[in-house]
Amino acid sequence: MWDYTDKVKEHFMNPRNVGDIADADAVGEVGSLACGDALKLFIKLDEQKERIVDAKFQTFGCGSAIASSSALTEMIKGKTLDEALQITNQEIADFLGGLPEEKMHCSVMGQEALEVAIAKYRGGPIPTHDHGHEHEQEGEIVCKCFGLTDGFLKKVIAQNRLHTAEQVTHFTKAGGACGGCIPKIKELIAEVLGEQQQREPKRPERLTNLRKMQLIQEVLENDVRPQLWADGGDLELIDIAGSAVQIAFRKACAGCASSGYTARFVEQKLRELVAEDITVEEVQG
Fold first, then answer.
1. Which of these three, 200, 235, 254, is where a domain ends?
2. Digit-coded pLDDT (tens) for 190-212
3. Known catalytic residues?
4. Last residue of a domain, one of 74, 98, 124
5. Domain count for the chain
6. How far apart are CA 25 and CA 45, in angstroms?
7. Angstrom distance (rounded) from CA 156 to CA 139
8. What pLDDT was estimated at residue 236?
């Protein structure tokens, strides 16, 4: 039995924005009934065609698929198309308080539908990862059972830092049917991990407490706060105790429903640029 958060249960039992939009500006459809999950996302823009003013969905799938679709439509309202495209599947899961790893493919499906809808609206190449639609393929087919390409799988592996073929199956379903693509999935994991190691910035092997505190403050000032300012938000550093960092969100970020995944973004940035053991806690103050 899956261990679902109360927020997942709430969005499953009382999903937001179910239905369609007759005059939608963009529509994205992913998955297929044959694979067990399908999602159709409708997006309506404002008169200036700059911001999303409405979003609705139709989903065939499990409770996690419905909850993820509901969460996605709530998250993208009020955002520009470029801002919406920055939303990751992990942020969808975080919005719901987390998803079981075996159900993370539901959040990936939401991210896919959003990408397809916006690509169709802009008239660019349409990404696809299933056999159910006649769109441009993103690389070579790796998983024939679900029609998943190497380009798609590498993107999911990199974004979610997956390390095992089992994790890839949980996030994408690849390898979950016949299992014939498992060796290729392992090759893709090794390839992505090798690329990530080459790109990752070099950290000092050992940091004094003083130097760690200095680096944390520098990253917050130079890499995090400017991104929050762009959306009218801000944060304040409250305390640093070893590797535990306490922050409080200010301005537009204060009390925002998305502050949970914003805090996760801050934590990931600090782990990337300072130390891997850093934890971030949002406090009220």
1. 200
2. 998 888 777 665 555 577 888 89
3. 35, 106
4. 124
5. 3
6. 6
7. 14
8. 92
